[in-house]
Amino acid sequence: MNGVAPQFARLALIGFGLIGGSIARAARAQGLAAEIITTARSEKTRARVAELGVVDRVVDTNVEAVRDADLVILCIPVGACGAVAQEIAAHLKPGAIVSDVGSVKGAVVKDMAPHLPKHVHFVPAHPVAGTEHSGPDSGFAELFINRWCILTPPEGTDAGAVDRLRAFWAAMGAKVEVMTPEHHDLVLAITSHLPHLIAYTIVGTADELAQVTSSEVIKFSAGGFRDFTRIAASDPTMWRDVFLANKDAVLEMLGTFNEDLAKLTRAIRRGDGEALFDHFTRTRAIRRGIVEIGQDSAAPDFGRPHPQLQKKPD
Ligand code: NAP
What domains appear along the chain, each with residue ranges and CATH number? Predict the structure, then answer.
């Protein structure tokens, strides 16, 4: 505990993978809840969480987890949120804040809201932070530091509840912004969902090539390919659910992307160096902007260590 009174007496985390595990570790490190209770779908994960010792109690069911909890966060795949909301609804404490961490917001709000009783505050959230790892061992307390967390409270949500959740995420190091679920889904379709789709496509294409062997693709991957493979290694369940749940926004962005790809294809076919140069100059400026606002490192090769090249002492 960091000496400040905890913001919540009891925090319940349903699901303990990368995101649930990181919230547990960060909330504990910052002393944000007097008690942290968690559950997961499988006995195997629950046993592992108990072994890790980063929460106060591991329980067998979602219903047990939410009993008397002041803040309940669903840290499970987007497609499972509706059924879990229905299961826990009758057991929620009056005045509790119910939230989630799903990467799509419109579908989660549509699936969860109808089940939740009027006496709880529903404040959906999406921490825009992650890695390609999943499971109970993958979380870490620093995951949210300097990353955005987007809250999408439905119209009319109690402002005090939104402020409490904002403070919770801010205390874990996140920068918090509020927007509508629809706008969130459009923004994330271009900044996250489409890049994942492109990575999944290109890695699959390389795997199926006849003229270039798989071992050559792996051997020469530093040419750019390997940076796509990190994204394409992301959890298949999570990403299946994201594309099913954010279908309209992803299809809209994909339409624009295909038009732009056609323009670049034409420039290559026609030998239009000026069009290619202008395009690449514009995109380079976007990368610089991301580094300037501290959302990535400017270190060469993404800061990968190269011990064999370290300078020898004179
Ligand atoms: P994860 O590491 O795979 O963990 C998922 C957790 O959900 C596990 O504890 C799992 O239990 C449980 N679970 C899976 N299916 C379930 C179901 N049908 N019903 C109840 N529980 C179920 O996943 P994650 O990366 O933490 O992602 C969780 C959520 O965070 C997703 O909604 C995702 O969109 C969102 N998110 C992810 C990232 C990212 O980069 N990974 C970033 C931001 C937001 P078992 O282990 O027992 O199967």
Answer: 8-180 (3.40.50.720), 183-296 (1.10.3660.10)
Q: Residue 15 C-alpha to ligand 1 middle, in angstroms?
A: 6
Cβ of 88 below 6 Å from ligand 1: no
β-pairing verdict for 8-14 and 33-39: parallel
Q: What are the Cα distances from residue 5, in Å, to 9, 33, 47, 53, 219? A: 10, 9, 30, 22, 53
Beta-bridged to residue 121, according to DSSP, are 97
125 lines ligand 1 (CB under 6 A): no
* Ordered DSSP codes for 13-59: EE--SHHHHHHHHHHHHHT-EEEEEEE-SSHHHHHHHHHHT-SSEE-
- pLDDT tens column, 74-133: 999 999 999 999 999 999 999 999 999 999 999 999 999 999 999 999 999 999 999 999
Return the half-sphere exposure (C-beta side, CA atoms, 13 A cut-off) of residue 165: 29
**pTM of the entire predicted model:** 0.92
pLDDT digits (tens, 9 = 90+) for 274-285: 999 999 999 999
